[in-house]
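lol ok so funny story. i was supposed to be doing the assay writeup but got distracted and ended up predicting the structure for this chain instead. priorities right. anyway since i did it might as well share w the group, maybe its usefull for someone
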Amino acid sequence: MIQSLCALPRASRRAWARCSLLLTLSFLVASAQADSIEVLAAFLKTTQSAQASFVQTLSTPARPGRAARQKKSIGHFSFIRPEHFRFDYESPYAQSIVADGRTLWIYDKDIAQVTSKPLTPALLNTPAAIIAWAQDVKALAKVFVLEAEASQAGLEWVKLTPIQKEGPIQFLRIGLRSTQSGVSLASLVMRDAFNQDTLLVFEDFIFNPKGLTLESFAFKPPLGVEVIQGE
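and the output, tada:
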């Protein structure tokens, strides 16, 4: 093989070298992208519960007569698979989104209003389908089309496009970080039906915390608030 290559004209040898380099790079990229779905599978399998703090940035695109805008929020989140999770927003407005195993509760403290929805339909086509509901890649693939993406900034990325096209979001991108302790959820990007981008960056991620119990997800509407029953 080496002798045959050396016997090629110089121009042919250069073309062969370029071709070999491209094939090698393509193989490496394909392998890296395949690994990102494997990392997601490991996250779903090994992280049965977790808690973390987060910073959320909502970016609204520019429109006629209206400049692009950004809104930042901070808070904490936790989950126990497959039907318990909560997002507690602390700033700039207090809001809690809680799934207690049967019902999804959305509590806006400033306007003294609670909205409740049946849990399973509410989870479909949402980031919660990744964070709490799905227990393996097969379950996730029933709701989303999964596409492996190249590693970026030390994270493994997977893009998820809802199979149901008329849902509230266009796609999700999940960024995962592999550590000695396990696979942590580092970032989540969502583009909704209005072309708004929501970026969630998670910090202080704790795997399977011992102090987290199902009682942590109990919710009872406070006295005096309006309760709206959703579908």
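Residues 1-34 have pLDDT under 50 and may be disordered. The chain has one domain: 12-229.
back to the writeup now i swear
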